[in-house]
User: Fold these one by one.
Assistant:
Number 1:
Amino acid sequence: MERKIRILIAKPGLDGHDRGAKVMAAACRDAGMEVIYTGLRQTPEMIVNAAIQEDVDIVALSILSGAHMTLFPAVLKLMKEKGLNDVLLTGGGIIPEEDMKALEALGVGKLFGPGTNTQEAIEYMKNWVSKHRTYKVV
Amino acid sequence: MSFTSNVPFDVLQFAKTLTKLEYGDPTVLDMINQNYQNLGRAYRIGVTGPPGAGKSSLVTMMAKHYREEGVRVGIIAVDPSSPFSGGALLGDRIRMQQLGADENIFIRSMASRGAMGGLAEYADAAADLFDLYGFDVILLETVGVGQSELEIAQCADTTVVVIVPQSGDVIQGMKAGLMEIGDLFVMNKSDDPFSEKATQQLKSAIHLKEWGEWTPPIINTVATENRGIDRLIHQLNAHHSFLIQTGALEQRRQQRLVRRIKQMVTEKVERELWNKTREIKLLQAIQERRQPQHILEEIYQDFRGSFYVGNESESN
Amino acid sequence: MSEMKVNPIDSSAVPQSIRDEDQNHLHEIEKYQKAKQKWEDDLKKSKDRGGYYYSVSSSPIDILGLPETPPKHFLEKIGFPGQYPYTRGIHPNMYRGKLWTMRQFSGFGTPEETNERYHYLLQNGQTGLSVAFDLPTLMGRDSDDPWSTGEVGKCGVAVSSLRDMEVLMHGIDQGNVTTSMTINSPSFILWAFYIAAGEKKGTHRSQMGGTLQNDILKEFIAQKEFIFPVRPSIKLVVDTIEFATKEMPKWNSISISGYHIREAGSTAAQELAFTLADGFAYIEAALDRGLDIDDFAPRLSHFFNSHIDFFEEIAKFRAARRIYARIMREEYHAKKERSWMLRFHTQTAGCSLTAQQPENNIVRTAFEALAAVLGGTQSLHTNSMDETLALPSEKAVTIALRTQQIIAHEIGVAHTIDPLGGSWYVEQLTDKIEAEAYEYFRKIKELGGNRGFLPGVIAGIESGFFQREIAQAAYLHQQELDRKDRIIVGVNDYVDPDEKIDIPILKITEEAELRQKEILKKLRSERDNRKVEQCLAQLKESCENNTNVMYPVLECAHAMVTLGEMMNVMKSVYGEYIEDSVF
Ligand SMILES: Nc1nc2c(ncn2[C@@H]2O[C@H](COP(=O)(O)OP(=O)(O)O)[C@@H](O)[C@H]2O)c(=O)[nH]1
Ligand SMILES: [Mg+2]
């Protein structure tokens, strides 16, 4: 049996614009993934706690409020502290290119801006998982 | 591995073990098997009902309540997989996130995967794992719509059926077989003006049936406002004591085991029966246009024969 | 084939009906002439702004196009401008009387910085203010709340107390400039800050004009900036409607918004239907409060999105006026003509803009603005080209404003009323969108047990109906883009692979957050904290007793109680809302 990719899609911070998060969730489902959606206004603690319990391969954050330079690092730091070393942190939103680069340097995965083709993002995630996640189903 | 010792709970490892179990990893199955004697400590509560009835909200409030009593709570929440893509959107956590990052609550969302036969087994085994890892109460949320979901509900010691006061819900519930499996009925959303009438309907429906020693009570709740949860917990405790005192708990667990072992035997036999050789034989016989009845007899005799000849060729 | 049975002797049947129709038609023409006469009379009575109504070839421009002979149902469906059902516009002379208000939504960083921007905009010909608050403020949190970390001043200006509002409006005559405030859950508090700030400068509240964008229903439906559960949220909106009706005759007590519904991915018909349904829900709630419809309806305003599909948008605006007039008159029995008129603000579609080749956004915005003007909007915000990248720079904001000025003064479209009225295609599209909206109304009412819009909208929110419809439309749209069925220039076609974006991006530093925190700390230590406690206790009592919160909130404002402090007290009474996510 092929192992399904599990992805946690979350909206951290105060921002409630969930169009992108929902479209992405639906696209991931239709690409055969199991999507755990946590809803709005999640703290980094809540997000990482859920990621651990759900044993997800990917944590994806959607941030449109401009607080990405605070929220991505906060989640990443917690993930590392809790030992989530083989989990991809990715996401999307209105994030200027230089900020994307700065976040990537910290260890955040590729981030997707407005106008991204959802299939492109899904391809990226699938690739990442096949390269980095070790657990194989017997 | 022993689970009675004070080995600190490793949440990461536990989460990964659940995943392995979900994919039928033999090492995990074996571990459960080895620790069979330690099973049965946890109280398993199934919560089922139509979509949107408030199951997740109720489970959240129940978990809160149990936490206040200092009890460790495990939650398994099952949502349907998409029949088209095999993917799933699992949204039960949305309500449960308010439980915060409490290390004594472990929530796992699960997709039903379309592997309908296996789902109940997995849920059952997952509950075993929670049990082994020292969780005291296990809450199992499933959507009460299909046969397999009803089966999952039967993995529980106590099954709570959640209904809402929307017209027709009670009748729908009866049709779906929900009336048969409830040990407790919750009329959630009792803030709805129609709830009194619906409760009456439900009462009549319940009284239509012969129940034996335990007649399921109806509990009115408003999950979103944490109302009626005390009464629900009280009734759960009552049912739990009832199960213990009458020996019904033991009986239920035995029945569960009977079902599970039967299932496992059937699967094993099936695997052995339909090995490559017989599959090919079958196909050939069909291509030669032989009578089905004859093919059946031949394969059956061949299978039976294999037991006398010895099973070297079948297993290794 | 069946045989036709015609009685050759009885010739009266057919000719009679023709005669009836003739009669009706004559009657209609008579009514048409009368309506036309009325329009002409109204036109004479209306004030003209004194524009120069000549084409670029110096030939005079007609104010209105009319059919040679009116088609069937002309008066019921199209009519004359300034007349029921207002399909062609709510004024007899439309933009010849007054141009739309050019109102650019703006705010960022600290109140000091935004105040500076406002002075700049007013000097550059902007005619009204529109305040964008930052996310913590929108969510009822002070700048020093832990949840506010990283968000202070990012998407708008941070306002945590009356002190901040006084700085924001410093040097601006609140009796003269009209101000629109986009603030949802805590709208009554920010409004109280605004009123208090004006009154401290000596302007009486009855002199203040503006709009409160406190449509909370669309938050549940689309933008998700809710705090309290649905029912208390509606109650609080009715409080503001009641307060405006009694105390602030120049204020638009609510702006019923479709903008965010559209941004969340809805279709045009969904935007129209859900927004109007929300409005009718408020009306029913206000009627339940005992208000008279003709006392408050004239000050209700709407807010729509102008998306990229040119004709569909124009049809939507025209249909909106017609549906609204009809329902206000026929279902709610409003008597004043002003109660029937749908007045609206428009913003061009942020979601139609692209991060790629951002200069193209100027063109998109221009088309969208044009659609809004052809659709008869009362005020307009045009987006800046760099909005998908960050906060708009000054240059981008100026271009956006200039776009409106070009539409108003150069291309001539403002001189003629509803120039597309009577186009077969546009009329047909108007009818179509109208029918789709009515179909949604039917569904919404049904969800609430056919007891009106209010129960229907509440049920629609709680059951996730609206959210699901919108999420599905948004997903469908994304799939069209992914498959390239729909082309967006620079995004999924005509892509420039070596694109380098050289638009200066305005970035908000963390300094705003630090400054705000300091100011709050000082404020909390210097104010009379006993007074603060008293005022908060009064506010709590008001919430518990279900009285209008505006009065205790104004008291709190004057006592320098902060936004977050008031909201916390109210949360303890009302609780907080958790949304189910539906897909
Ligand atoms: N009015 C009311 N709404 C409730 C109650 N319990 C749950 N809900 C709402 O019903 C919806 C579905 O709840 P959820 O727990 O997700 O249901 P599930 O699908 O059965 O798990 C949510 O919007 C809840 O807020 C209740 O007791 N009263
Ligand atoms: Mg659920």
Number 2:
Amino acid sequence: MTTETSVLQDTRPTPGVRQRLAAFRQGYPHFFLLGLLVGVMLILALVPYQLVAGPWLRAGEDVPYLLQYFRMGTTTWFVLTVSGMAMGLLIFIMSSGMTLTFGLMSVLNLGHGGFISFGAFCGATVVVYFSAWAASGNLFLTIAVLMMACFYAMLITGALGVFFERVVIKPVYGDHLKQILVTIGGAIILMELIHVIWGATDVPVPRPQLLRGAVIIDQAIPFIGGAAIEIYRLMAVIVGLILYGLMLLVINKTKVGVLIRAGVESREMVEVQGYRINLLFLAVFVAGSALAGLGGAMWGMYEQIVNAHMGEHLMIMVVVVIILGGLGSITGCFYGAILVGLINLYVGYLEPRLAGIATVGLMVAVLMWRPQGLIPVLRH
Amino acid sequence: MAEPLMKLSGVHADIGQYHILHGVDLELPKGELTVLLGRNGAGKSTTLRTIMGLTDVPRGRVEFKGEDITEWATPRIARSGIAFVPEDMGIFQLLSVRENLELAAASGPIDKQRLEWVFGLFPALKKFWQTDAGNLSGGQKQMLAIARAIIEPRDLLLVDEPTKGLAPSIINDLRDAFRELKDQEATILLVEQNFNFARALGQTVAVMDDGRVVHAGSMAALAEDEALQQELLGLSLGAHQ
Ligand SMILES: Nc1ncnc2c1ncn2[C@@H]1O[C@H](COP(=O)(O)OP(=O)(O)OP(=O)(O)O)[C@@H](O)[C@H]1O
Ligand SMILES: [Mg+2]
């Protein structure tokens, strides 16, 4: 394969722009898609509406509908892009555990959404309980409340993960149909559990005082001056990037990470080297559940309301993200999530009614192009 | 004959619904290199995989260092001192040479001196230390697979057809490496189709057919007895030389 392409390249004088673009598209499909998406929006933002609609305006006729898109300015583009990244990173936090679980053990855990909801309620409980601290506007108290909410959500969903893996998942290793049935059953139980503990009604989550409002970018700054970015979204971006960095660090630099990557390739050979892959899997499953819980808690504060079905709804995006990224790939999951977040915000702005379809449409388009997802993981 | 380090008695093995081994009896003398011969599909690889706990064993007994390990899980068998190089080498393609070896050193960081010794046996591994194992050549992958098995001292090495698809010069390198391991009194079970390679290394030999061991004895005796070779292996050394 590789020799073939190198032979081809050798016979050509110098690769033209087209070939180089094609090579880039093949080699870095995630950067290519991100660039395409952000770039198209940037063009819509940069080209003045007056310019493209000029002929119709001067003639006093109705401007064609699609040209309305050019009304968007660079400020709006910037706000949409940052918000899309925030949404994408929250989805990434929720999805990362599921993609690793699948990559390592080919276990399809459709109960993952239950952990998201559960985490959201746990986080909400803490925020409501300490609402006086959250409302104080004191930086230290606010951070304390947020940390407690996140840790509590992770602790409870992590503990649930231990139980879920041993009781629900372990008996159905290696059988996808049973996994689907059993984990959906598990998700329903989690949902009912939420109803029992927190009641059947939605719970509002007041956002801490310090995280309300927005950062306004100085008017003097060209292109993006005047843009208002919600503080909470900025925080989501920062937390998401830190988590991604940590995950990469663990996966690339630690022994556990090496074991996880090795296990994705061949479970059997990991065991032959003397490691108990079942324990490794349990650890990854628990970490994945805790991350789902963390993502749920952060999502709850973002939406400022939680209900028992939120995990189910989010699962659509989670599943799209992990398939889009390439099952089992953390990097793929990261870029897949950002793509989904961006396309949601972009399309939601241009054509609000199409936002839901856009997510699935993106997945279909990518799978037609690359059936294994953006960054496929090699499997024996 | 020395005390056997490993002993299989009447071992049956299933893979899924298939019954593959029909009562294998095999003894591996301590400190010797035993060659396992037999035609394709005889059950050689399955025997090795069975020792590692990778098949179902409905009947029979596998003993290692006097302990019954038949029911043990694979990781425990490995930790008890058995290294396994499977027929497809089983290296982790997406991991670097270094990471492959670090994982193989299951009990802690790689011993520096031992690593130098392995580099001495297989210099290519030093050169490609940070390269993804998937980018190595077939022979280099085989070297990595064997290096992985010997990066920590083990009591028993199970090696499945290390010469498969390798050029003669690399086969000679491998033979030298095995000689050195033999000199260190390692106990080795080597599956091999290349009879010359096998004869050069083996002290003991076992021949399998149809899921059973049909002959066991010393390599010297088999190497001299052309009629027996004909009968067991359908080959004549004369024709090969
Ligand atoms: N996963 C499997 N499922 C079903 N049958 C199998 C499986 N693996 C091996 N077999 C069968 O078991 C028998 C023994 O196979 P094995 O791989 O042990 O032979 P071998 O002696 O190593 O052969 P070779 O010299 O070709 O490597 C063969 O008939 C093979 O078809
Ligand atoms: Mg074989």
